[in-house]
């Protein structure tokens, strides 16, 4: 990570006095580990900019062991040193010499969608339209009469024909069941004829603002709905039962724990948040969740939602407001400053008028809300930056830690805007593993040079926070780390603008301390040092030393949240 202000701190084993050691016995001691250090980021105000990111680098002496009390780290050091915190009731866990690092903090997930994807038709990895239809047909066989059939994950760019499906394709396997299936990015969906009829979508239906209904040569809907056009169908689907939400939440949390995720910054329904709240009351919440709220909701409603649950709860609370500037590159709905190279009449679909967006951002910032905008195209990112600049000016607030989610294509002149406004780049490197197959053909080589620009962000002093966009991509962090340090596909046969590669330590920082900073939690998590929450993961290899390709093979052996093991490999 580029260091704008560096302070070197060496933590010695004598971090606590003997008297303190005697007064503070550990609940659990983890011994025989290979403990990794980390970095913490801080915010420094300057005269010429509302905020400026600076970095404090923490360098640890080699650590073998860790003592934990009341969910926090008491000490990190040698086995001998940490044993000073042991009393007759202390549990001792031997880590077998394995690599130990701060738990991954996924800065961008959709846990609700991820859980329901496991309950609905899983279309991820469909090799063809026929494969997709066969998976849907298998689900229809078990459906009750009239039941809605849903699913997610198809990606036509992976198919030989690369054509989007039509309602007629889906009608052939769904019968009388209304059905709708999201593309892998969630920005377009294919609905069958029964679903379109239920939603009243016809040839006469106008395109909604921020969306598009695809039509055939006769003007009839093809079944493909883009962006806000999907809402007409989804609004007709009966809401899931509480039992279904609970099961979906359990499946998503199991997925997270098994992949070393100890914190997640989540964009799910409010009803999902209430489900997590109930699980916390039962002592069954195994993941720290920072829940996002909808940017479009009225401020009065947002304030009630914020007050519903204590912001000081380290396990569960609400955080930023999430808004959408545009769509995705894969569906060519990301808002671009110039048309797509391979679709010259199309520059994407912006979701807002700038004046309205800026006014809404200023109102919500004035009420004390952090804001994060989904922006994938360079025009979408500029809309977000202009709204943030206006909000800062009108609200006169500092340290808002505004964020742009995804940041896949950035105009070169806008990196300075990021830096000056102190905007965090919340990115998902794993997207590149798929997108590199077609991204340059969509946007052309000049724009592609500044796409997925992680090193360019770093070189411009812009803080990175890593995530996965689960379930758009699997929740495993190792694909993202591999992509960040190689810019290659998983087989290693294709490379995408390698000058944007990161070093492994910087990639780890983005997935731990960077993500923590992005949610105002840098003093609580992201590092393994005394006083921090005891959130860590034990891996089967030292990912800082293995060849990059080996990172993809990493197995999680143990995931620990607040000193408690929430996953252990069998």
Describe the protein's architecture and organization:
The chain has 570 residues and is an alpha/beta fold. It has a domain at 149-234: Roll (Diaminopimelate Epimerase, Chain A, domain 1), CATH 3.10.310. 31% of the residues lie in helices and 23% in strands. It is built from 20 helices and 26 strands. Strands 10-17-18-19-20-21-22-23 form an eight-stranded parallel sheet. A six-stranded mixed sheet has the order 11-12-13-14-16-15, sandwiched between helices. The protein is globular, with a radius of gyration of 24 Å.
Here the CATH topology of the domain at 149-234 equals Diaminopimelate Epimerase, Chain A, domain 1
* CA-based gyration radius: 24 Å
Biggest sheet, open or closed, and with what strands and sense?
8 strands, parallel
Strand order of the largest sheet: 10-17-18-19-20-21-22-23
> Under the CATH scheme, which class of the domain at 149-234?
Alpha Beta
Approximate helicity band: 25-40%
- How many helices does DSSP assign? 20
Q: How far is the N terminus from the C terminus?
A: 36 Å
- The assigned structural class equals alpha/beta
* Share of β-strand residues: 15-25%
């Amino acid at each position: 990570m580029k260091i704008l202000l560096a302070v070197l701190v060496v933590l010695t084993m004598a971090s606590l006095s003997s008297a303190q050691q005697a007064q503070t016995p550990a609940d659990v001691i983890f011994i025989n580990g290979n403990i990794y250090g980390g970095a913490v980021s801080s915010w420094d105000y300057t005269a010429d900019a509302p905020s400026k990111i600076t970095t404090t680098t923490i360098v640890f002496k080699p650590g073998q062991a860790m003592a934990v009390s009341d969910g926090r780290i008491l000490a990190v050091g040698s086995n001998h040193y940490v044993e000073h915190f042991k009393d007759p009731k202390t549990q001792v866990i031997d880590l077998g010499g394995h690599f130990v690092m701060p738990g991954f903090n996924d800065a961008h997930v959709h846990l609700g969608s991820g859980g329901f994807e496991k309950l609905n038709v899983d279309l991820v990895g469909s090799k063809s339209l026929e494969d997709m239809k066969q998976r849907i047909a298998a689900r229809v066989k078990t459906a009750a009469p009239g039941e809605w059939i849903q699913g997610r994950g198809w990606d036509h760019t992976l198919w030989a024909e690369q054509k989007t499906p039509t309602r007629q394709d889906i009608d052939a396997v769904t019968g009388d069941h209304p059905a709708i299936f999201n593309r892998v990015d969630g920005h377009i969906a294919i609905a069958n004829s029964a679903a379109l009829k239920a939603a009243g979508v016809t040839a006469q239906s106008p395109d909604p603002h921020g969306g598009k209904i695809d039509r055939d040569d006769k003007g009839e809907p093809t079944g493909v709905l883009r962006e806000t056009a999907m809402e007409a169908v989804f609004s007709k689907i009966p809401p899931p039962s509480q039992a279904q939400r609970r099961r979906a939440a359990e499946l998503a949390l199991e997925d997270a724990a098994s992949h070393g995720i100890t914190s997640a910054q989540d964009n799910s329904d409010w009803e999902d948040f209430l489900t997590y709240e109930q699980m916390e009351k039962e002592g069954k919440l195994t993941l720290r969740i920072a829940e996002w709220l909808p940017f479009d909701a009225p401020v009065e409603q947002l304030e009630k939602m914020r007050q519903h649950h204590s912001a000081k709860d380290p396990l569960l609370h609400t955080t930023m407001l999430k808004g959408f500037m545009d769509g995705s590159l894969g569906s060519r709905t990301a808002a671009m400053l110039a048309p797509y190279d391979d679709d010259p009449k199309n520059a994407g679909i912006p979701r807002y008028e700038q004046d309205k967006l800026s006014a809404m951002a200023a109102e919500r910032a004035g009420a004390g809300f952090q804001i994060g905008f989904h922006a994938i195209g360079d025009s979408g990112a500029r809309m977000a930056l202009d709204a943030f600049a206006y909000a800062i000016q009108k609200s006169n607030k500092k340290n808002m830690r505004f964020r742009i989610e995804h940041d896949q294509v950035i105009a070169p002149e806008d990196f300075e805007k990021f830096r000056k406004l102190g905007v965090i780049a919340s990115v998902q490197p794993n997207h590149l593993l798929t997108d590199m197959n077609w991204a340059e053909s969509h946007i052309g080589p000049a724009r592609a040079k500044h796409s997925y620009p992680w090193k360019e962000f770093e070189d411009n002093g812009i803080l990175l926070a890593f995530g996965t966009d689960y379930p758009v991509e699997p929740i495993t962090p190792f694909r993202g780390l591999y992509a960040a340090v190689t810019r290659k596909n998983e087989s290693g046969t294709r490379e995408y603008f390698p000058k944007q590669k990161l070093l492994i330590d910087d990639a780890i920082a983005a997935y731990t301390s960077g993500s923590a900073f992005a949610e105002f939690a840098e003093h609580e998590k992201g590092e393994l040092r005394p006083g921090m929450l005891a959130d860590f993961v034990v891996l089967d290899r030292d990912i800082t030393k293995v060849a990059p390709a080996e990172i993809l093979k990493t197995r999680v052996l143990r995931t620990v949240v607040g000193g408690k093991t929430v996953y252990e490999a069998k």
